[in-house]
Each structure stands twice: as C-alpha cells, then as structure tokens.
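Help wanted!
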Amino acid sequence: MTHRPPLHTGRRRFLTASLATGGAMATAGLLPAAARAATPDPLITEVQPWASGFGDGVDAHPYGLPTEHEGDVIRRTVSWLTADTISSINFTPIHALDGTITPQGCAFERHHSGAIDLAKPDYRLMINGMVERPLVFTYDDLERFPRRTMTCFLECAANTGMEWAGAQLNGAQFTHGMIHNMEYTGVPLRLLLEEAGVKPEATWVMAEGADASSNARSFPIEKMLDDVLVAFKANGEALRKEHGYPVRLVVPGWEGNMWIKWLRRIEVADAPWESREETSKYTDTLANGTSRKWTWVMDAKSVVTSPSPQSPIRHGAGPLVITGLAWSGRGAIKQVDVTVDGGRTWQTARLEPQSNPLALHRFYLDHQWDGSDMLIQSRAMDATGYVQPTKDALRAIRGLNSVYHNNGIQTWLVKANGEAENVEIS
Amino acid sequence: MTHRPPLHTGRRRFLTASLATGGAMATAGLLPAAARAATPDPLITEVQPWASGFGDGVDAHPYGLPTEHEGDVIRRTVSWLTADTISSINFTPIHALDGTITPQGCAFERHHSGAIDLAKPDYRLMINGMVERPLVFTYDDLERFPRRTMTCFLECAANTGMEWAGAQLNGAQFTHGMIHNMEYTGVPLRLLLEEAGVKPEATWVMAEGADASSNARSFPIEKMLDDVLVAFKANGEALRKEHGYPVRLVVPGWEGNMWIKWLRRIEVADAPWESREETSKYTDTLANGTSRKWTWVMDAKSVVTSPSPQSPIRHGAGPLVITGLAWSGRGAIKQVDVTVDGGRTWQTARLEPQSNPLALHRFYLDHQWDGSDMLIQSRAMDATGYVQPTKDALRAIRGLNSVYHNNGIQTWLVKANGEAENVEIS
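Answered by r_m:
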C-alpha cells in the first residue's frame, strides 16, 4: 500500500474515445459521460427523495429477495416443451447474470415428478448391495463425516438440445440456461462407501432419488470413489427444495440428471442398472439409428451471455463489454476466443481465476464496436486441449437425431440497432 | 477415470468406531448407522407420501426461497444494541451456514439511515475534485467499462466489538455475524479515475453514498487505484437493495463501512475529508484516551461456527466435525489451528482452496470427541505470518475503550450434553 501504481493518463480513454463515432452514439441516444458533465442533470443538482428520508430498517427483511426492479431476472419455462410442468424444466436467466455463481433462487430446475417436500427428520440414505454392512444414515449421521466444499457447474444433458436442428430459441436463457454453478458442501461418497465396506467384486454404483420418479442412474465405481459429494449445502446455505433438499448427489463434470436429488439409496453392484433414465432417456441416437450410451461427461462449451437476444446493446458504437460463460467436464477452461465477424478473426478473452477446474468460468472481451452488424461467437478450449466444435462439425458426426450433448459454437447476430438474434452460419 | 483408487477397507470406520463409546451415544439418543440397519425403519420399509405423488412443477417459483424447514436461518437483530432499526445492524446466521459464499438473502445489513430504493435509470455516479474532467456516469455507462469478478469478505469494523469487555453474546451469529462473503462483479475504480484524469497532486479519494446519511470515507489514492471495484453484481445477480443496489464500492480487505453503498460520488483531493464516519465513528480509542484512526485493514481472524451456542452437538461421543471461517485483509489464510482444551494442545485444520486471498476461508477439523467438556478455539495465521491474538493480548495493547477491530480468539465451552456457551479463559 506504499507503492502508487503509475497512472495511465495518456492512454486512450474509453468513453471519450467514442466521440470519434459520435453519430452512432447519438443514434442510441447516449451521450458520452464526459459530455454529460457539461449538461445540468437534476439527478445531480437537486436533492432526491432517497437522500432526504429514511429507508428500510434492518428488521424489514430477515431473509431478503431481489429488488422489484430486477423482477424480470427469473427462471422461465417454455410452454410447448413438455406436456406438463411436473416432468419438465425451466431455465436460468444467464443473460442477466454476471460472475460465475448462480443464486439458488434463479438456478434452473429439472424434475421428473415435481419438487418434493422432505424434512431432515424424515430423511434416510440407504447403502446396500455388494457391501460388507448395509447401512442407513440419518441426516445427522451425515453431518459427522468429514466434509468438502467445492464449486461445480451442473449442466443438463439436454442443454442446447433444441438447437440440433438449427436456431430455435431466441435467447441465451433458453438455448443455454439449463445450467447453474454453485459452491457445494457435503461428504465425499467415498467415505460412506468405505463405512459400508465395498466388496472387491463391485464395479458399479447406482444412485436413486426419493421422489415418485425414482430417478436412478448407474455410475462406474471409480467415479463414485473419486470426487462425488453427498451434498447438503449450496452457496453456503441448505439446498433448496427444488434442488434436492435436504441431500443431493454432486457429480462434478457429469450430466445433470446424474446429480440425484432427494438422494435415498446407493446400491453397489457388478453391473449397471440400465434404468429408464439411461435407456429410453439420456442416450444419443446417431444418424444410423444406433445410440451412444454412458455419455456422462459434459464436453467443453461456452456461450456469450451479453450481448445476446435478451441482453441487447443499449448504446451506440464504441466500448462494448462482450461477456459469457465457459465450462468443461474434463478439466479447467484454458482459453476462450471470441469472434465478432462470424469466425473470420478471433480475439482471446480474459478469464477470471477459478478455485475449481470443474466450475463455470467467466470470460470478458473489451471490444471497440464500430456500430455495424456483428456475428458473435465464443469458442472454449479445456485443459485436455479439446476445442469446442461448430454445430456443423457435431452434426457431421452425430447426425440430427440427438437431443443431448450439443456443445456446438453458438452464434448471435447483433444488429446496428443493438438487438440480437439466434442465427446459424455455415 | 480408468484408475480405481485403493479402497481403505481396513481403515477405522467413522460411525462404527463410535460403538466403543456407546454409552455417550445412547445418552444423546443416536444409534450408530451400522446398528440402525438391523432395526426396521418405516422410512425405509414403507412407501412415503413424497414417493407416491407429484411435487411442485417448474413454474411454481420463478424466483425461489429457502424451504420452510430452514425458517430459522435468517438475519437477526439485537434489540438493545441501537436506538432504532434505521441506523442499525443485523447479523448473518454464520452458525447455520457452511462453505464460504454468503447468500445475499441472509447476508448482514448495516445502514446509517435505512436501505433506500434507487432504480437504475435514476442512478448517477459523479467524479469531481482534482481531475482533468469532472464526469457523471449513468448505470449504462458503467457497463461499458472492463469488468472484474472476485470473491471478497466484508467485515464490519464493529464485528465482535461487544466482546471487548468479556463474553457478551451467546452465539457465533451475534459475536461474529457482521460479516459476509460474496462474488462481486464490477468495474475497477482505477479505470473510472483514469477516464476523469487524476491530477498529479492528488493523494486522497473520497467516496460518498446516496442515502440520507451521506456515508462518506476517505481513502489513500493508492488503494483506489489498486483493487477497489465499483460493483453492480453480487453472487452473480444484481446487488440487493440492502447491499447498495444498484452500485456499491468493494474495498477488498478493508472495514465494511468503507464499502460505500448506493455510491453517488467520488471526489479526488490532496487531503482526507475527516468525515463524521472517520472521526466520531470508526476510530479506536485506547486506554489513555487517544484514538487510533485510519485503521482500515481487517486483521487475521477466525471463529468456530459449529459446534457453537446456536449449533449444539446433537449426538454423543465419537466423530465430530468442527468447522469455521477464517479471513484476513492482509492476504490469504495460510493455516488455522483448533484446540478443544482451551489452548493446551492445537491441531491444524483442513483449509479449502480459495480463488481470492481476500475471501472467507472455510476450515474443518475432523475430531474424535471423548464426550467430555471442551474449550474450543480457532487461531488463524495469514500470508504475512501474523497470528490471531488472544483477547487478553489485544486488551493489553488497546485497553477496553474500543468498539472496533476485535480480532481476538473466541472460546466456546461445549458441554458433555452438546450445548455450548460463549466463555472467556485466561
């Protein structure tokens, strides 16, 4: 704190640099801040009501909610997507968020038979099958085991699935909003399995939820002994009802339907279950009619969240922050490149540091917009060297029958008036 | 994923190891899980209502709240602490949280004249004083500057202040709950100051809030050009009204009253303001009646959040997770030691990795409790090598006149019945 960093007084200033493109700025109705200073502004020169009275006291909201001014930053549904709202999905408003943490309140939900109410005293977790000692744990039992805290993304296998056949949905919330990212606290499943004593011949573990759908998935035992958590906290507080309260599985890097909510049972075996959710669902049917199965890991992917159809540019040419999210189930994101000309030229975005490789990463590109149409894309590369493919490259290998695992590059057409559309380019 | 980690089937198991101390377990009414498996449990053997009907659909809660079962995890006030609730404070329920992120909904509030309602279209930020170009920014202007995202703790200077005179408040929420930790997104203030053009003779910067209290503080310009953010997002979404919506200052590592909420003005000068909030408040009066001032940085500190008076042990002897938070405004936490015998012996706790040194750190100690009384303390060491002092060591230097900057070691007496009390030991 004794060193004063050099001031960049000679550098090109951000907003005043825009004066050179004043025409486009005027089109959007925005005066550069440097010019505005010369204009009397009653919000500056006059005492405002919020500066002359009292606000809410500290007893007003024991548990607070967002201000009413942010009333549009909510989970949204697509009415035609499913037959009912019980076995359905909604979407995180990623176009309106920044940073990496997803608040629980607006983190997307996917239920197979609705979000159930299960109190901690009624909670039980059974471990059975190929173990030395079948066990039943209460919630209080789980709190006695060593804990870990880690931040992980959860992406639904169907995220971006409606885009296989071309640009379908006009907004990042709807194309890429089946994702959230929270800091989880829980017990490594490995410790519970060791408590039960896994028999040497065991090779698979099945996890099952307590809701009526009995959502159940099979896992190779290696994953369950590696980084899987039996989690009871998210973003510091208890899980929300819709995210599996009181206990869910956290399966870092793997598709969301495997993160079993309201976790009630772990069975150890020497073969997979071939449950409904891994035969009729969550397989990837290829062009020749055969299906890929056990496609658990979410490949590297990214999306520009702003500007985007629900987050248009509200100013003219000049400085523009292009930002988005990148993630991979196979390791940390090492680089994100952004293009504004449909892939002819790319610039490397800034990435914020992350404490866990399997968390969402936030990227920023500080761009000088010339005010003309842009074709904006982002392209992520993960620690394995894998580079996010184009949608056409994916289709060439997987065909058009898939619903799941579309990690192709997304394109937004951003027009001179600042509005954006979901488009495809070849 | 092809490597199967070795199974520790021979290691001492956690819960069954407790059988050796079965008397204490029975005292607390908890059977070890391994024994419970032999007892028919209707929650396992019978179909439960939540497994035989539908739960909430995905359109039930566009913005969700905690389940009613967690209704006690809220901000709380202490009625005798202040004359009214407008210029007052409440407390984060840190005893009931885990991990490091504090949800905005239960993150403590401190207002000097209440939480005001200020909409984005009405928001202005002025930069004036010793600058080449006085500027006024709208909210939309701020969104055009390069952004950073970082996680930081905010601690009120008065946190733990009531403990100067001895053990006062029975719960970590009340002794240490004037703290929260969020992931912030905003514009480095440095960029806005560069836009205005800081004159060479400037040495201080003042920041002022838009509420009626006009909370204002002076900062050495070096800090303002270093890591201070003009922030508009917390934990991914917009700031809440009570935390300064739409824009607040983030001052990593420094006391909370300097994180100006509803930020309306930045003035550049060659001397400090000596505002009310840095003369009559937020100075540390010593035993001889003189006061320390400019005590901006929060020193290394820690507290055990569980077990604690509001988070008693609900089981008998055997495995016990001791957990808490540690932080320092001077650099990352390098080590946290925990004692259960009032400081005679110490064990080093596990620390979870953190993306930012000036964020809260979570520590865990996995302890085999013998079922007798414990005097539990934690002691943090930061990257500078500074070690958190005892309260007595602090009092020897600072006397008993202080309200602020009590970072002394906290003691909980945890009794054989699992209940805990705030005590002092010498």
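OP: Thanks! One thing I noticed: Chain A touches chain B through 144 residues (CB under 8 Å).
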